Amino acid sequence: MEAENKDLLIEGAKTFGVSLDEKAMEAFELYLKELLKWNQKINLTAIRSEKGILLKHFLDSLSVYPYLPEHSFILDIGSGAGFPGIPLKIIQPSFEVTLIDSVRKKVDFQKHILRMLGLKETEAIHGRVQDRGILQRLQGRFDITLSRAFSDLGTFLFLSFPFLKQEGTAIAMKGEVDSNEIRLLPGTEGIQYRLQKTIPLILPFSSFKRTILLFEKS
Predict the structure, then answer these.
(1) Chain-centre distance of CA 178, in angstroms?
(2) Could you tell me if 177 and 213 are in contact, meaning their C-beta atoms sit under 8 angstroms apart?
(3) What is the crossing angle of helices 22-39 and 104-117, to 10°?
(4) Angstrom distance (rounded) from CA 144 to CA 38
């Protein structure tokens, strides 16, 4: 990782209350290197520059850190190349993270990274959250469900509901959000949430606008 980009990652992480130690930096460097290498053969991400990955993947993943309790059980739905679940696990080893994605090559990459980084209490699953077997095994286990542009808000909340503990939190990481999208969320019988917080932010060292939405299962 170029020195300039190292500084960018360290300083950017501080804006989310994260202090990256040497071990975490080594993990991010290895993650970056492997992502760039795998991306030459299989399309894991459309972002192909070192700086772009640091800003739009690593720092974007860390943006939810301030809203996660220290010992959370986290389900990352539609985790792609491991975002945001793996960066969050790197900075907070006490998180127990389950990653799920329907694209096998992306899950293969996740498993490769988890092995290389020696991350414990982290599982990568190939499948869909709608799959009966996955639903039966993981139902009601999580404090947090996370999604980064996985689907529209209503679908994410609907699919998250059975996996969350009572009073668990579904966290949607979106781009700019129209307030109407929240107001017009479809109601579904037996599925109830309370909007806890809407956090608009701009990613450090960029003009990328993001919105974090926290919904409590009620």
Answers:
(1) 21
(2) yes
(3) 150
(4) 29
pLDDT tens by residue, 7-64: 999 999 999 999 999 999 999 999 999 999 998 888 787 777 888 889 889 999 999 9
Helix/strand/coil for 175: coil
CATH number at residue 103: 3.40.50.150
The bridge status of strand 73-77 relative to strand 142-148 is: parallel
* Residues contacting 209, CB < 8 A, separation 6+: 175, 176, 200, 201, 202
Q: Which two tokens stand for residue 35?
A: 């992502």
Q: Number of structural domains, the chain?
A: 1
Structure pTM?
Answer: 0.94
Range of the domain at 169: 64-217
Residue matched to tokens 């092995």: 115
